[in-house]
Design a protein that fits this description.
With about 240 residues, the chain is an all-beta fold. The protein has strands spanning about 40, 45-50, 55, 65-75, 80-85, 95-105, 110-115, 125-135, 140-145, 155, 160-165, 175-180, 190-200, 205-215, 220-225, 230-240. Helices cover about 0% and strands about 45% of the residues.
């Protein structure tokens, strides 16, 4: 085995790539590291590009993971947060995630609705079911129930994502919605919602909703708001699920 000692190895022609070994060879770096800002496979496909500080761009889709962050809405005294772009046929499943959303009004429901006209109207017919679990901080009660008051029977109004959210400085809600095949034009559009809430009476409130937008039209916009008052803080992120 031969050895080459050098501080720099470069091709004679700077416009050409430097090839180490052949297609049947394996290059082993014993006790050293290989540093490059652009990494490609043998077919010349870029796997990722680094800026030299660990920040990656041009990451190949096969390495991007299942969730693709499409957009982020940040609340700051906001009456509502709307997603009017990015919901199309690119992904079969779209996921909304709620991060520390805090209301200005105490004991208020967080709500959502869909649109089939790009956000001009949020009034899609919905059929839903729901149940919840609650447990008070002082252990004064713990309960679970099918929530008939939170159901919707082919209604067009805003539907609860979770309810009874406190407006204390440290109170908020978190959770997520899975919306399935919103761009389809054959079937209804199913969704599942799971949230946990700091409730107005100092309890944890774990809510589950499911149902469908009862339309074969594409759903292409979603709006979120509290039933009363603004969102003082929090974020909602939209992901496409591969």
């Amino acid at each position: 085995m031969s050895k080459v000692y050098a501080d720099t190895i470069a091709p004679d022609d700077p416009t050409q790539d430097l090839t180490l070994g052949t297609s049947t060879n394996t290059i082993t770096l014993a006790g050293n590291d290989l540093r490059a800002n652009t990494v490609k496979d043998s077919g010349g496909n870029t796997l990722w590009v680094s800026d030299g500080s660990g920040n990656l761009s041009s990451v190949h889709s096969s390495l991007a993971g299942n969730f693709k962050l499409l957009s982020t809405q940040t609340a700051s005294g906001s009456a509502n947060l709307s997603f009017t772009t990015g919901i199309d046929s690119t992904y079969d499943v779209y996921v909304f995630r709620f991060h520390d959303v805090n209301p200005a009004t105490d004991d208020v429901n967080f709500q959502w609705n869909g649109s089939s006209d790009g956000g001009s109207n949020y009034n899609v017919v919905k059929q839903t079911t729901s149940f919840y679990f609650q447990h008070a901080e002082d252990n004064s009660y713990a309960s679970q129930d099918y929530s008939t008051s939170a159901d919707m029977a082919l209604g067009t109004g805003y539907h609860a994502v979770t309810g009874g959210v406190a407006n204390d400085a440290d109170a908020c809600l978190v959770g997520e919605i899975y919306l399935f095949n919103p761009a389809g034009t054959t079937y209804v559009k199913h969704f599942q919602i799971v949230c946990n809430t700091y409730k107005n009476d100092s309890a944890t409130n774990h809510t589950f909703y499911a149902g469908y937008f009862n339309t074969s039209s594409a759903i292409n916009a979603i709006d979120f708001k509290f039933a009363s008052g603004n969102m003082t803080a929090g974020q909602i992120k939209l992901y496409g699920l591969l």
